[in-house]
Amino acid sequence: MGKTKWMAALGITTMLFGSLLAGCGGGEKSEKANGGSKQGEKVEVTLAGWGGNPTEQKLLKQTLDDFEKKYPNIKVKYEVIADQYMDVIKTRLAGGQGPDVFYLDAFEAPALIETGALEPLDKYVTDDFDINDFEKPMLDAFKGKDGKIYGFPKDYSTLALFYNKKMFEEAGVEVPKTWDELREVAKKLTKGKQVYGFGVAPELARLYYIAESKGGKVVTDNKASFADPKVVEALQPIVDMHLKDKSAAQPNEVGATWGGEMFGQGKAAMVIEGNWAIPFLQETFPNLEFGTAEIPTINGKKTTMAYTVAYVMNKDSKKKEAAWKLIEYLTGKEGMKTWTSKGYALPTRKSVAAELGFDKDPLRAPLVAGASYATVWQNGTNLPIITNNFNNQFVSAFLGERPLAEALKEAQKTANSEIESK
């Protein structure tokens, strides 16, 4: 699983449309069920995404094959946009050449919804689609300011604490339940520069929930506000673990490219990662004994991040009925079960997670548990600008090049200047 694309590419088909497709008779209802085509004509729906690893691609192909068997009059043309995904999508939408259905990351959703390029999906939903089955934070991520739903989430991952069982046993320490405990445990697990107690990803996407744990806000009124002293106070311990305790490091300081690799190589006893790290560790480091736990509480509160992706519909699609059938299947119970069956991505439907046993799985249960209280990686249309500026300056503070308060103050000023000049 690519660590920068937290999730890769997910059904309930209603009895009504299923019977219409399987049944006979012409007329308007039959035409509608076949995606707006006349009886017997095949409709081709384009689906665009950013791909995934071979296992994910195989699962998606299987799901799409199952869909086409259920709806023989709808053909899905799947297209992988490997590079500059959102730039390509936006350009094609603006030029009237956008796909009928495509992936949309929650991070990008507010800005694209605001452009009016997406079709609201509420009017297509029937009772047996069961919207209440979705994890609420994931569903809410694709609602517009008008309260309408513009996408249904196909999968997600939260963050959990990954810990090396052997290192914990040797150090005689327990899995930390609070962030203060984590800091103390990290010190005991650290062995010079050979093994760090904690591997850190010094970027806003991974630190957002910590940044707001003292009551400060990273974003206020769609502008950066992370120089707030409360945000600085919340993030200072991460910097101090690196500079004072010497118990934390970022992956590139030990020759790794990301936290999962750093952890797998035994250079960190703990990391905070998502579901994507589980198959990576099992396949790449098969002898590693590790466990997962919910992220330690901060100020007595449970918290984590969630990264989610939806299927959305192009408002200019000429095949909206067929496009909806595809979205309905992929994010319904049947399609979602197939897509998430190997555990590469977690199902956004609670019933599917329970059916697949992920809510009881020793490694995935902490990730599933976090879904209900997670902060989704998303906040307004300017978060990309805010994130870039935060990351640049936070790293400088993390490395000891300047005080955190000073670094974040400069980052906030630059971010808001860029926002105002848009």
UniProtKB/TrEMBL annotation:
GO biological process: what's one of them? maltodextrin transmembrane transport
* Cleavable signal peptide: 1-22
**CDD domains xrefs:** PBP2_UgpB
List UniProt keywords, sorted A-Z.
Signal, Sugar transport, Transport
Task: Please indicate which superkingdom the organism of origin belongs to.
Answer: Bacteria
From the UniProt record, which GO molecular function terms apply?
A: maltose binding
- Metal-binding as a keyword of this entry, yes or no, is no
One GO cellular component this record assigns the protein to is:
ATP-binding cassette (ABC) transporter complex, substrate-binding subunit-containing
- InterPro entries, from UniProt? SBP
Q: Which PANTHER family match?
A: MALTOSE-BINDING PERIPLASMIC PROTEIN, MALTOSE_MALTODEXTRIN-BINDING PERIPLASMIC PROTEIN
Family statement drawn from the similarity comment of this UniProt entry: Belongs to the bacterial solute-binding protein 1 family.
Name this polypeptide is given = Sugar transporter
| Phylogenetic placement of the source organism | Bacteria, Bacillati, Bacillota, Bacilli, Bacillales
